[in-house]
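Model the whole thing, not chain by chain.
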Amino acid sequence: MNDNRPKVEQAKTEVAAEPVPQYRAGDVIHTAPEFAVADADVFAVERGDAIAGTSLWRDAWRRLLKNKLAVFGMIVVVIITLVSVTGPFLIKLLTGLTPDYIPSDVSLLRSIPPFTAADGSFSWIHPMGTDNQGRDLLARVLQGGQISLMVGVIATLVSLIIGVSYGAIAGYLGGRIDNLMMRFVDVLYSLPYIIIVIVLLFLFRSATARGQVVLLFFALGSVSWLTMARIVRGQVLSLKNQEFVLAARATGVSTPRIIFRHIVPNTLGPVIVYATLTIPTVMLTEAFLSFLGFGVQPPLASWGSLVTDGIQNIGIFPWQLVFPGVTMALTLFSLNFLGDGLRDALDPQTRKQ
Amino acid sequence: MLRFIIRRLLITVPTILVVLTITWALVRLAPGNFYSNEKAVPAAIEKNIREKYGLDKPWYQQYWKTMRGIVRLDFGTSLKYEGESVNAIIARSLPVSATVGILAYLLALVVGIFAGSIAALHPNSKRDYASMTLAMLGISIPNFVLGPILVFVFALTLYWLPPSRWNGFFSRNLILPVLTLSGLYMAYIARLTRAGMLEVLRSDYIRTARAKGLSEWQVVTRHALRGGLLPVVSYTGPALAFLVTGTVVVERIFVLPGLGNYFIQASLNRDEPLIIGIVAFIAITLLLANLVVDIAYAYLDPRIRY
Amino acid sequence: MGNPNVNLLEVKHLRTYFDTEDGEVKAVDGISFALKRGETLGIVGESGSGKSVTNLSIIRLIPEPPGRIVSGEVLLDGVDILKLPAAQVRRIRGRRIAMIFQDPMTSLNPFMKISRQLMEITQLHLGHNRGQAYDHAIRMLEKVGIPDARARANGYPHELSGGMRQRVMIAMALSCEPELLIADEPTTALDVTIQAQILELIKTLKQATGTSVILITHDLGVVAGMTDHLIVMYAGKVFEQAPTTHMFALPANPYTRGLLRSVPDPMAQQGELYQIPGSPPDVAHLPPGCPFAPRCYRAEEICQREFPPMVQLTAEHSSLCHFAQEVYEESKLAVAATEPLGEGVS
């Protein structure tokens, strides 16, 4: 009952002060299943502070490896990426088939089931069968994977650049500008962005297939940055009043430099998590656009366009839908699990008990 | 509260105008035009067409004309469906899209909240893993893959349900489209419910409720559900926007005469009034729906005051 | 109800462990104590000492997993709560044993009107209908000193200050006239002036109703005037147990002495405030010997090596220390030498 708190009390208040800035307003902090653990954790946090930086990432990595689904996702993503990149070359090396090779032999111009030669006997030549023109489906799925993954990654990078800059600027400047910028994001949130993308994609339809892919990067990237901007803004808001920023400002560092050299690197965790989750979303949107005929154009193929071709023939040649469909779903599935795992690993507060 | 609604409405109006202007500008700036899509048109005929549709006037007059029409909720006449007004097309196709969309979202809410709550009440149990893996599958399988697979299984193989086409509002034809469309939302809502409920179930006030001697069922239904479902409520805004996307696909797969299908056709035909009309209509609907969601949120969370 | 001389609550060898990423945490490791009707027991310790877990274990509110009650008995009027079926435990919670929690800001449901949160408990346990429950709720709010109770009852928790919310919590806890009230750091989250008011309120209500109270705190100043008995906990163990006045006068454990010396004494004119060196132990990785040894002014080689015994000093006073007897004698000498408490002992 005194202003001069005894030591026990001090230990207590330190404990309470430690993790608070991490929470969003309205979060319930001291929670039942955690409290005992939290009591023990606090001292771990105190000890960990001294060696902050690296051990934070190492801890996260350790937690990630404990998450079986996330590890599964990571392995699948790595394998699919490697196979998509090297696969077409290997197939060409082994069988001489390329993704766009249409056999000149008329008898081969038809869809051949998996593991079957043209004469109906068992064969390793087309493990996924062929499409209507007799093109090797495996080669096409792998090449489609290159395009799909590329669209996913590059469009995500585009959205990353826009979202991080926008969110960081809004959060750092704060006040009325922040309010206005975030209102704008709210507005865009409520719009059927896909409709805008379609208008954009169709009207600026590129003459070449490659041009269309480039257009896709920007079209998809430019509509996927909203959540990223919100996340970064929230992070920046909580970071900008911390001492290292005040110190930088006091020593006369310019505003853009403070934002991009001092604050943004500290938002890395949530940004990585959200970027990982954006990749599958973008890939899905690309596939959806291809399905509607606005996406990747022939002769190039993406998983989306292959699936679309497969749908036409679902009753007769189901393998044309099954293989690209399953490959795409598996990839999205794995990326989603990886993203979830990363989030749990990087943000211990939300991790499962 | 009333002031909040009015303020939001006042922001909504310029928003819609901005969206429409962007759409209008995109349509205008893009190379080509609706009448010369496939083959070249003789100069004299082109001049006639341009005059007929006012394309010979300066851009600001065309812009003004379009916008004035929209303010009066008159979107003009379609260029492709000769003589038919955009309003009539929307009035005809909207009920189709709305039926499929609303049924799908309701189904997703019921199944998603149920599955998510079960998972949250037994975290890290087999039930939890099963429903969350299923949910992840739902998120990862695109609806245009899910749809054809459902058709293949239930229509083409088992012959239980018709594969496609519109057959009135309460027909078995709706089952597959609604299932296809709701899959993604079911999955999302299940995940949101699980996360929200887990967080709430860990909170102090749930401990208080348990300390009162309430049964687990009472704790969940009286105390946890409301806070736990707030994320689902705020997801409804974006979900409605995505629902529009979803309906486009489903209408394509199942050949339904809905808004989405008309929109794709209009884009392919460069049917300018129809494109702008549908975009305007969807934007207005979504912004109003978001307003309703925000009001509902404020009603559910007494801490929020405007 | 019951014989006043019989223990209302008896906790025997209670062990509650938590499974964490760091391994098993023995949050509560073999706690025993008893509480008579109408008595007030103080449980004192730093955070992480296991005092809250002890009390959550009593009404089986430990979240499982990660927690689990490994062994022990919790006898309420001779009946072991730990062995009762869940439905019967629920009939005890809120009815016979009520709890007040540390943080009134988060312990009330933010989405529910205050009246409903109060009505709920009497409708459940006393079979009140809505009207009765409402009237009762208003009476309780008035009893805990909430001005304009009717208007307040109609509002939501976020409209109240922390002190008012804690009053609501108290009103809720006492609604069914429980035999035992467990107050888990009821004042920690409050301003100093409000703290005194809330403690005074608990004291008054306790005297009016004859409820037994367990008061959990890390603040010795709080328990001094409030409790009959005192338990000092450290690292999941009872370190010292004695009647409050006795403990304050003649502490027989170096840890208790440290705690007492770190309480500012308004009578003492000179000297710096004492601080126990070091910080509380990591409960997941306890040393083999006495868990307090690394911070203890009196630790010898045996303390690092062997777990200390529980030494019985008088019928009601025991202390977990290799040198309990010696410390006890030192305390006696200190009392004899210098009158106001808390000085001497070098």
